[in-house]
Amino acid sequence: MSTQVVVQYATLVSLGIGVLGLALAVLIHRQQVTTQILLELSARYDALLNTAPVGLWTSPEGQLPAPTGELTVSVLRYCSLVSFCYFLFQQRRIPKKMWELMLPSIERTLRGALLVREWKTVRSEFQSFPDFSALVASIQGSRRPSGRSSGLATTRDSSR
Q: pLDDT exceeding 70 applies to what percent of the chain?
C-alpha cells in the first residue's frame, strides 16, 4: 500500500470520527437544553405555588373564594405556564413522557370549579395560541374523574 492511500484512509477515518463527534455533541447539547427547560419550568411552578393565594389550590368543592384581582393574576400565571409547557411539547422541546406525566395534574387543576370560573376571565389572553384554548376547552368539556389522564393532547401534530 502506498503512502498516499494510507493518508487517504487516515483522512477518511478522521473525517468520520469528526462527524460522529459533532453528532454526539449536538445530541448532548439538546439533552442539556431540555434539562434546563425542565428545571426552569419547575422553578416557575414552585414560584407560582409560593405566591398564589391558598384558595387557588385548596378550595373545597362548592366553596370558591371570591373573585379578586390577585386570584385572577394567579390563574393567568398558571395558565401561561401551562400554555408555555404545551407549546414546548408541541415543538418537541418537552419529551412526550414528561408531558404525559404533567397532564393528569394539569387536567385536574383545569377541571376545578375555580379554574373553570376564572378561565372565562383570562381566556382572551390566549387568543394568539388557539391550540392552548382548544386544549383547555377539551379538558374542561370532559368531566372525567381526577387521577387518570384522559389522554388529551398526548399526540403531536404530525404536520410539524
A: 85
What's the whole-number average pLDDT of the chain?
A: 85
- Mapping DSSP onto H, E and C, the string for the chain reads CCHHHHHHHHHHHHHHHHHHHHHHHHHHHHHHHHHHHHHHHHHHHHHHHHHCCHHHHHCCCCCCCCCCHHHHHHHHHHHHHHHHHHHHHHCCCCCHHHHHHHHHHHHHHHHCHHHHHHHHHHHHHHCCCHHHHHHHHHHHHCCCCCCCCCCCCCCCCCCC
Give pLDDT tens digits for 94-116.
Answer: 889 989 999 999 999 899 888 99
pTM assigned to the model: 0.74
- The per-residue pLDDT for 57 is 73
Rounded to whole angstroms, how far apart are CA atoms 160 and 141? 26
Cell numbers at residue 77, please? Answer: 400565571
Cβ neighbours of residue 148 closer than 8 Å, sequence gap 6 or more: 104
